[in-house]
């Protein structure tokens, strides 16, 4: 058997690695000159700075790190919240915390109604969760739950609670994750950066095609044809882990998804700043707003401090300048810009494209097809969940 994987991000490389461990021949197509996708680490003198995926909740990823012999640490992350005047504020006031404590049991009970078996890592039926998260939580009278989720929803790239469909938000921010946020549980960090994970995975993959964009994926009788600008090849199975341009996949249902799927433009700005007592900071008033900073992380080593800021929007001089000004208004002195990077994250369907059984029909279709969609196209986008869904899918499929 020969399997082609489209996309050399975390999911694609993990799938290739696991398949080769089973003795299956794999070819990975990556249109960029490097692999890793959102798992990118910038080596800045003695600092390993994450510019994409930074941390992970939950224990799932430990299994992979131990297998690959990659050192990691778990540590608490202290968080500040700023108001619209750049003053430090509590995430929730004392009275709001009391309201939250009253809401939590009701939230858990409601969650079981919508997800009676718990939220599967892969997407399923939307039911009446197609409305924005904020509107849904107002309807069910759980405003404090929304206050807790909103800044993290935007920080993780989902967008605004006023726009993001409740289904996607609740699928990721389940009661267990919400409790972890409230408690301030430890987060998992890879000591040498997420790029180390990518490096170790790619070391164990025999065939990766770099800077080669797939132009056509055509299911045939018993095979799948892949055309690039340079050649044509035939495979037994094709796994797609990234959004492709419309009409690349010659399959009606998959092509429908690719035409409807949307992503959020998101940028990362890395600055060297004065070495002060700074911690991870959320701009509470900006949560989910376009063209504004959402939050920043801090990396420190021997007197050097690197600040990584995240914002929605398209990379431009004006947006970079706006981010810098907001950081300085927060009391941080910026020395210079190190790097600015444009991302497109969180593949999802907009509310007007949501159909009750879309993902259910997609899963059923995949059982009959030689082509399958994987990763964040059909599941929660966090690294820990992508690891779990990739493993489960391959065990079922192969």
Structural topology:
Elements lengths: L1 E5 L3 H12 L3 E6 L10 E4 L2 E4 L9 H8 L4 E4 L3 E4 L5 E2 L4 H21 L18 H7 L3 H13 L10 H7 L2 H9 L3 E4 L3 H10 L4 E3 L3 E6 L4 E5 L3 E4 L1 E4 L11 H9 E13 L6 E4 L9 E9 L2 E9 L4 H13 L4 E16 L8 H11 L2 E3 L9 H15 L1
Parallel strand pairs: 1-2, 1-13, 2-9, 6-15, 13-19
Antiparallel strand pairs: 3-4, 5-8, 6-7, 10-11, 11-12, 14-17, 14-18, 15-16, 16-17
Helix pairs in contact: 1-12, 4-6
List keywords for this structure.
398 residues, single chain, FAD/NAD(P)-binding domain, 19 strands, Alpha-Beta Plaits, 5-stranded parallel sheet, 3 domains, alpha/beta, 7-stranded mixed sheet, 12 helices
Descriptive account of the structure:
The protein has 398 residues and is of the alpha/beta class. It has 3 domains: 2-75 and 189-251 and 369-397, FAD/NAD(P)-binding domain (3-Layer(bba) Sandwich), CATH 3.50.50; 97-174; 265-347, Alpha-Beta Plaits (2-Layer Sandwich). Helix content is 34%, strand content 27%. It contains 12 helices and 19 strands. It has helices spanning 10-21, 60-67, 94-114, 133-139, 143-155, 166-172, 175-183, 194-203, 252-260, 317-329, 358-368, 383-397, and strands at 2-6, 25-30, 41-44, 47-50, 72-75, 79-82, 88-89, 187-190, 208-210, 214-219, 224-228, 232-235, 237-240, 261-273, 280-283, 293-301, 304-312, 334-349, 371-373. A 7-stranded mixed sheet has the order 7-6-15-16-17-14-18, sandwiched between helices. A 5-stranded parallel sheet has the order 9-2-1-13-19, with helices on one face. α1 links the parallel β1 (2-6) and β2 (25-30). α1 (10-21) packs parallel to α12 (383-397) and α4 packs across α6. The chain is globular. The N and C termini lie close together (10 Å).
